[in-house]
Design a protein that fits this description.
This is YgjV family protein. The chain crosses the membrane at residues 37-54, 66-83, 89-105, 112-136. InterPro entries: Uncharacterised_HI1736/YgjV, YgjV. It comes from Photobacterium rosenbergii. The protein is mainly alpha-helical and 160 residues long. The chain has one domain (2-159). It is built from seven helices and no strands. It has helices at residues 2-14, 19-40, 43-61, 65-82, 90-104, 107-128, 131-159.
Length: 160
């Protein structure tokens, strides 16, 4: 059930053209994801989602490479400590990419990085058996492309 709530929250987040609105909805999305993964027994993914909630909340107010590197380091430390195998590192890779994106990128570049991170999370969700999460990431890949095209079109109209 929580996977389907994440599905709705994720679509709402990634459909946003405004970076701040995207980040605010993502905080709720990450908290829901955390609970979902812990209930599935996917501890590494759960802790990664918890860190993602904290980092996303901070990224609303701060753009900082230092904070990005701090959270990437936290993700790597937790991930390597909790991982039972290399597949457990998929959500860590996705979280690291997302962390860099949130603190260091904007607009289309932000969403392009999220696209790559979504590929990592899609793979993780397939492995842990999260049907809602798998549907979410597959959908988010499409929504991200649509939003990037909308932003590109908006930029073209602004310069025309």
């Amino acid at each position: 059930m929580l996977g389907f709530v994440s599905f709705a929250l994720g679509i709402a987040a990634f459909y946003q053209k405004d970076d701040k609105k995207l980040k605010l909805v993502m905080v709720v999305f990450n908290i829901n994801h955390m609970v979902h993964f812990f209930l599935l027994g996917a501890v590494t993914a759960g802790f990664s989602a918890l860190l993602s909630a904290f980092r996303t909340a901070l990224s609303v107010k701060f753009q900082s490479r230092l904070l990005a590197y701090f959270f990437i380091g936290c993700n790597l430390a937790v991930g390597f400590y909790l991982a039972d195998g290399w597949l457990d590192l998929l959500p860590i890779a996705g979280a690291c990419i997302g962390t860099y994106a949130l603190f260091c990128l904007e607009g289309i570049k932000l969403r392009l990085a999220f696209f790559v991170g979504a590929l990592c999370w899609l793979s993780n969700n397939i492995v842990v058996g999260s049907i809602g999460g798998t549907l979410l990431e597959a959908t988010l890949l499409s929504v991200n492309v649509v939003t990037m095209l909308r932003l590109h079109r908006q930029q073209q109209l602004a310069t025309a």
